[in-house]
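Workshop exercise sheet. Pairs work together: one partner reads the sequence aloud, the other fills in the structure field after running the prediction. Swap roles for the next sheet.
Pair: D.N. / O.F.
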Amino acid sequence: MASVEDFLTSLRANAIGWGRDIRAAGAFLTVFPVSMPPGPRGQKATKPPASAVRAFPVIGAGVGVVAGAALLVGNDLGLHPMASALVGLAVAAALTGGLHEDGLADTADGLGGGRTAAARLKVMQDSRIGTFGALAIVFSIAIRAAILAGFATPGIAVLALIAAGAASRGAMSAVMAAIPTARRQGLAATFGRPAREDSVTAALLGGALALLCLGPLAGILAVALAVATAFALARLAKRHLGGYTGDVLGALQQACEIAVLLAVAAIG
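Structure field:
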């Protein structure tokens, strides 16, 4: 009987922990007015728990679901597939407050406009958008919209959005544990270095959700391309910036999302 009670207690604790982390990840990655879960002894939390990174793929999948629903609404209204795709992407950006698109633009400006790591990081802190950043956002949206519009059915586009949202956020979590932060302060430092166990959980969860949505063939290719993309960007960030920043994570999410969509298009 004691072992059953211990199992139930452990199960309940795990459920509470996951609920807390999903809530914290949602507050961090979206614009939804979700308050941070309380800290130890009911104290008001000043930053998300590092373990919240394991819930990033859940939030990413949720964003994909809502964006996919918007795409379907556009399709049902008789919009052109490209217009429906843009509606879905616009809703996704609205849900995240353009967090990842902003990171992509800042990273592109930094890597394209500085000669040293310090200079690049300084450029990335500038609130103004430069030529490289503007082009990066335009091409990111254009490529994703074109891929989504080219799928045989809207249903495939929806599943691809969910898979891409989950896998790309899982890749973000993995990179956070793989390389150091480039700054001691900033968005990336808010979480600190997550435990390798939580990052591995996130990566596996993101991959599992992608496989569930896409099936074995497209799913494996999608995960492989996302991993390769994340690895390449992580090496680039470490070499040219000294590590990752919140902006780098945003750029990585966008790049991995494109990689997943390209994999689905290649198989389909």
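Discussion prompt: The two ends are 52 Å apart (CA to CA). What would you look at next?
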